[in-house]
């Protein structure tokens, strides 16, 4: 079982890695733009009309293209790799310090049971 100190360190590390390795990536471009309005709260009242005139319910529309997903995953993997290999680099340490205040305001992380199930090769 993790000690409280280990949990605090892991939480801090998870938040800063999410900020530096995920948040400030291509996902910002995907997130940019107008968000449609829903009055039902479940998006069933939002329809996308594509260039061929197809009316697609918002809940059935892909919200990210394959190319966007590839670019996002490339950036995340590269940033995680850089984070792990260069954690002691003064320039990376400065970035960590710069973003830590913002990341520190996020909700506390929780164990993801789905990840543990996948890790244990359960279906």
Summarize the topology.
Elements: H1 4-23, H2 27-31, E1 47-49, E2 55-57, H3 66-85, H4 90-104, H5 113-119
Antiparallel strand pairs: 1-2
Please explain how this structure is put together.
This protein is mainly alpha-helical and about 120 residues long. The chain has helices at about 5-25, 25-30, 65-85, 90-105, 115-120, and strands at about 45-50, 55. The protein is about 55% helix and about 5% strand. Strands 1-2 form a two-stranded antiparallel sheet. Helix 1 packs across helix 4 (about 90-105).
Average pLDDT taken over every residue: 90
| Number of helical stretches of at least 4 residues | 5
Distance between the termini: 25 Å
Shape: elongated
How is the main sheet built? 2 strands, antiparallel
Going across the biggest sheet, name each strand in turn: 1-2
Count of domains: 1
What is the helix fraction of residues, given as a range?
40-55%
How much of the polypeptide forms β-strand, as a percent range?
under 5%
Number of strands: 2
List the defining traits of the structure above.
123 residues, mainly alpha, two-stranded antiparallel sheet, 2 strands
């Amino acid at each position: 079982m993790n000690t409280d100190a280990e949990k605090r360190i892991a939480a801090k590390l998870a938040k800063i890695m999410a900020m530096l390795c995920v948040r400030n990536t291509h996902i910002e471009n995907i997130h940019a733009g107008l968000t449609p309005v829903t009055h039902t709260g479940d998006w069933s009242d939002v329809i996308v009309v594509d260039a061929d005139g197809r009316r697609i319910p918002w809940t059935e529309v892909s919200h990210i293209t394959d190319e966007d997903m590839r670019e996002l995953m490339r950036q995340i993997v590269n940033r995680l790799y850089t984070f792990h290999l260069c954690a002691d680099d003064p320039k990376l340490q400065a970035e960590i310090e710069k973003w830590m205040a913002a990341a520190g305001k996020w909700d506390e992380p929780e164990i993801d049971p789905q990840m543990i199930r996948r890790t244990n090769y359960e279906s």
